[in-house]
Write a structure and sequence with these properties.
2 strands; two-stranded antiparallel ribbon; mainly alpha; 20 helices; Citrate Synthase, domain 1; binds carboxymethyldethia coenzyme *A
């Protein structure tokens, strides 16, 4: 058993009594109430999920295992010659809550290399799809197609005990993660680079290998490491994370669950917003025809978008009420590496103008930018200009957090998810009388 898996097993065994005690002794303690607004409004703020892997504070933003983004980057062993950590070490950290030593991170690097071979049928399948298929559809299909490899599904069929479910779930998670950079880069080069895939380099780490297979020189390897870590996890209630958790709660394996989560990430209100941001900004710059944009011109363009009934992509958030620290981490990267790049300047100018416009518009509860407002500009600068690919990058990152979560879901024996629905007439009764006669327990 690998060092990581042994440590994970120890952490699981230490943690289980906490969950058991909560369920046995405190199951009926209240932690919140549900309003009609929450019932109709996407369960916003309903406390009904549990994860110890990340926590999203409305003001502060995300913490991974109780560490802020800068603390996380500082804590983890760095790839030699690089300013960013091994993504493999971050996986160790997310799973166990302990920062790995360099040796422990390297053990994961080696483990994943042994699992990285993508089955030929995945390439064959991708090649049969029309070339104009969206990269997210290809990505999700590739993951789903590999379901036949699932160790969880095989062990379940054989009759594995419930307290061991986490073991094959962990194995599936590692098998999938090891392959995702190769699949992502293959889709990119098949679709956008004249069908010229680049074979992985066995000497490189996960992030470095992705950059290599994309055909991108340094420092794109650091961009990849930063990007994948920043996008990994954002609590359990966002569409992609929640979908993965929900599907896995039916004991569907990690392939089914992740593929479903990727489909949720493909929505324009979620991950696809990073594609939309670039599309919006490029259209805007094209209309300017090379002229330097003034704040006034940007304001007009933002209002035109709002008046046409569309959202300003990259702004707003269901939980956050301040600028997303993931936005800030990427902004700092841009300030250091591409301070004078015209597209970055426009994105910065939008940052100056858009919150005021959204406040005046008066609808969005959060007028500040989220992660998606800043990520595309970095890709564009380094030559990855095919913005329909950007959500695949998000998806590779998001797999890390969601797969860590479903490994723990199985370790702690979380139940199949099944919230209760009410009818509109029941809600109307609650609105009028504070209760519903149709519900026996009210
Ligand atoms: N531009 C215009 N209107 C916006 C807005 C934006 N950026 N953000 C929110 N609003 C509107 C909503 O559409 C809603 O309008 P209606 O009352 O007409 O339905 C109103 O403001 C209230 O919404 P909210 O409570 O502030 O936001 P929600 O929790 O409902 O939605 C989100 C959150 C992210 C979907 C929304 O802010 C949005 O659509 N943003 C733009 C898309 C985007 O950037 N998504 C990426 C989020 C991060 C990620 O998951 O990757």
């Amino acid at each position: 058993m690998s060092t990581l898996k042994k440590l994970l097993q120890k952490k699981i065994e230490e943690h289980r009594p906490r969950t058991t005690k909560l369920l046995k002794e405190h199951a009926n303690k209240k932690i919140g109430e549900v309003t009609i607004g929450q019932c109709i409004g996407g369960a916003r703020g309903v406390r009904s999920l549990v994860t110890d892997i990340s926590y999203l504070d409305a003001e502060e933003g995300i913490r991974f295992r109780n560490k802020t983004i800068p603390e996380t980057f500082a804590l983890l062993p760095k790839v030699p010659g690089s300013e960013y950590p091994y993504v493999e070490g971050f996986w160790h950290f997310l799973l166990t809550g302990e920062a790995p030593t360099k040796e422990q991170a390297l053990e994961v690097v080696e483990d994943w290399k042994g699992r990285a071979q993508v089955p030929q049928y995945v390439y064959d399948l991708l090649r049969t799809m029309p070339r104009d298929t969206h990269p997210m559809t290809m990505f999700s299909t590739a993951i789903l197609a590999m379901q036949r490899e699932s160790k969880f599904a095989a062990r379940y069929r054989e009759g594995i005990k419930k307290d061991m479910y986490w073991d094959p779930m962990y194995e599936d998670a590692c098998d999938i993660l090891a392959k995702l950079p190769t699949i992502g880069a293959y889709i990119y080069r098949m679709k956008f680079k004249g069908d010229t895939p680049i074979a992985p380099d066995p000497k490189l780490d996960w992030g470095g290998n992705f950059a290599h297979m994309m055909g991108q020189p340094r420092p794109y390897d650091d961009v990849s490491r930063m990007y994948f870590i920043l996008h990994s996890d954002h609590e359990s209630g966002n569409v992609s994370a929640h979908t993965v958790h929900l599907v896995a709660s039916a004991l569907s394996d990690a392939y089914y669950a992740l593929s479903a989560g990727i489909n949720g990430l493909a929505g324009p209100l979620h991950g696809l917003a990073n594609e939309e941001v670039l599309r919006w900004t490029q259209n805007f710059m094209e209309k300017l025809g090379g002229k330097e944009p003034t704040d006034e011109v940007i304001k007009e363009a933002l209002w035109a978008t709002l008046k046409s009934g569309q959202v300003i992509p990259g702004y707003g958030h269901a939980v956050l009420r301040k600028t997303d620290p993931r936005y800030m981490a990427q902004r700092e990267f841009c300030q250091k590496n591409l301070p004078d790049y015209p597209l970055f300047k426009v994105v910065s100018q939008i940052f100056k103008v858009a919150p005021g416009v959204l406040m005046e518009h008066g609808k969005a509860k959060n007028p500040w930018p989220n992660v998606d407002a800043q990520s595309g500009v970095i890709q564009w600068y380094y030559g990855v200009k095919e913005y329909s690919f950007y959500t695949v990058l998000f998806g590779i990152g998001r797999a890390i957090g969601t797969l860590a979560n479903i490994t723990w879901d199985r370790a702690l024996g979380y139940a199949i998810e099944r919230p209760k629905s009410l009818s509109t007439s029941m809600l109307e009764e609650f609105a009028e009388k504070g209760k519903s006669d149709k519900l026996a327990d009210d």
